[in-house]
Amino acid sequence: MANIGFIGLGNMGGPMAANLVKAGHNVCGFDLVQENVATFIAAGGKSAASVGEATRDVDVVISMLPAGRHVSTVYEATDGVFESAPKGALLIDCSTIDVTTSRRLASVAAQKGFEMLDAPVSGGIMGAQGATLTFMTGATDEGFARAKPFLEQMGKNIIHAGGVGNGQAAKVCNNMLLGISMIGVCEAFNLADELGLDRQKLFDISSTASGQCWSLNTYCPVPGPVPTSPANNDYKAGFSVAMMLKDLKLSQDAANGVGLSTPLGANATALYEAFADEGNSDVDFSGIIKNLRKSDS
Ligand code: NAD
């Protein structure tokens, strides 16, 4: 059993932290939103009044925050992780953030006597709840070996993607692909509607044929075929449009940084940006199906 400080108890962090409690760890959580803290306490966790209090006497710190600026604040601010956690503690950031911030924080951590690694995830809230996430880990060999037993209690596939920052590099590539594939699946359902092809029939065929992918098989953007997908819950996020747009922008920044052209990634970014601008930032990212259809008619 380890003492774990868990910062960020939102859609993903809440169930991830709850799985660590279930595995028998002593987990102290902190979040700015009281409702999220209350849900975690109901799942058996403890809570703290600040980042510093949550990370003071711990073996491991895990963070699951929206973006790079939140992660920088949580680790570097007064009473933050770097100031409060005991030297030698293992620091695992599971948020999806830019590679540059991730590598910079790991380097500051090393100077302060911590091992820090990036371990962004794939698998959505269902993966977080069911402890079936994929972790893409950027770490030294030693850091990876230390983190793996904890990550295995929250996920199924724990992959060492290379040195620090490579977990984020893998995540950005994966999510550019996800944004593109979701739009592709939406376009296929919209076309099926117009051609008089039943949605369930398209699902039954494509989910077992060459069109299969996670956006279709697990996260189907129309109600019915996959009862757990957000389409059945009025597109309540899930993985919000704001988060998808954030990841697509990270992918485009990364591509621009190395002078690479990613035309479908650029198009997906523009489509999600337009959808967000119409007031849909909090909607699940699969909800873009309605917008794609609207822009055609
Ligand atoms: P979320 O907004 O539901 O949760 C983030 C939490 O961080 C919120 O509860 C917020 O209050 C908290 N927070 C922000 N600043 C804080 C601070 N200074 N101190 C303490 N808490 C703070 O987001 P999420 O959906 O859980 O996503 C978290 C990360 O995981 C993001 O980087 C996202 O890109 C990534 N991710 C999300 C999904 C998904 O399906 N939701 C899937 C894979 C990866």
CATH architecture of the largest domain: 3-Layer(aba) Sandwich
Distance between the termini: 58 Å
Bound small molecules, by name, code or SMILES, are: nicotinamide-adenine-dinucleotide
Number of helices: 14
Strand composition percent: 5-15%
- Average pLDDT: 96
Q: Can you tell me the overall shape?
A: globular
Largest sheet: 6 strands, parallel
**CATH-defined fold name of the largest domain:** Rossmann fold
CATH superfamily of the largest domain: NAD(P)-binding Rossmann-like Domain
DSSP summary, beta strand count = 9
- Read across the widest sheet, the strand sequence of neighbours is 3-2-1-4-5-6
Kindly describe this structure.
The protein is α/β, with parallel strands linked by helices and 297 residues long. The chain has 2 domains: 3-163, 3-Layer(aba) Sandwich (Rossmann fold), CATH 3.40.50.720; 169-296, N-(1-d-carboxylethyl)-l-norvaline Dehydrogenase, domain 2 (Orthogonal Bundle). It has helices spanning 13-22, 34-42, 51-54, 68-76, 81-84, 99-111, 124-130, 141-151, 166-195, 199-206, 214-217, 241-257, 263-280, 288-296, and strands spanning 3-7, 26-30, 46-47, 60-63, 90-93, 115-118, 121-122, 133-138, 155-162. The strands form 2 sheets. It has a 6-stranded parallel beta sheet, sandwiched between helices. Strands 7-8-9 form a 3-stranded mixed beta sheet. The longest helix has 30 residues, at 166-195. The protein is globular.
